[in-house]
Amino acid sequence: MKQDLEFIAKTVATMTEHIKDVESRRLVIGRANDYAGIKKFPKDKEMWSDEQLDTYLNMLEKLSGTMEAKIPSELDQMSLDDKVETLVAADVVTDITPQKENNPEISGTVGDIVNKMEEAKNYRDDLKCPFCGQMVYDNRKSKKGDKSPDFVCSTNDPAICGGHSGKWRKSWWLDNSDLPEEWGIETF
After folding, report:
1. Domain ranges of the chain
2. How confident is the model at residue 71 (pLDDT cuts 50, 70, 90)?
């Protein structure tokens, strides 16, 4: 089944009619077309499946709602401070900070996250392994992911460190119950 090109053209025009700047409209449509190319849709839109057409129109809808469609193209040449000032003045950016009096549960959660982040900023180089007395690396600032340990014993020899598993060095995470109390680090 072939797609109706006239229908596609009318739909694209209707979806982008709110974009008054012609260059911005071309940019949005061009990016949607680029997306179709990346997804390896046929070059001839008549050959698209209904699913491909739906995917294309969904992407066009997302792109037509972006700041690039609503903000003048001069934004790309502005400094970061000027961009923020323009976006705030245009009411594109709104304050999403939870208010304590409005929702104490959210405020408490945000507070917990902020406390955890503050604790992670406090790098410690005075930590000692309770099993071997050697230095413990504080990895909180350099972690690659949540599964990486927050602290690791510097000793890589199981004969020296009793916490060594034989394969892995002794490690601790902030939310572990076995975090040594003498380190004075608040657990979460």
Report:
1. 5-89, 102-188
2. very low
DSSP state of 171: E
CB 125 within 8 A of CB 97: no
126 Cβ contact partners less than 8 Å away, ≥ 6 residues apart: none
Q: What is the DSSP string of 96-116?
A: -PPPTTT-HHHHHHHHHHHHH
What CA–CA distance (Å, rounded) separates 127 from 184?
A: 10
Residue 143 CB neighbours (<10 A): 13
**How far, CA to CA in Å, does 61 sit from each of 49, 51, 65, 138?**
18, 15, 6, 46
**Inter-residue contact 60 to 29 (CB < 8 Å):** yes
Enter the pTM of the model. Answer: 0.37
Handedness of CA 135, 138, 143, 146 (dihedral sign): positive
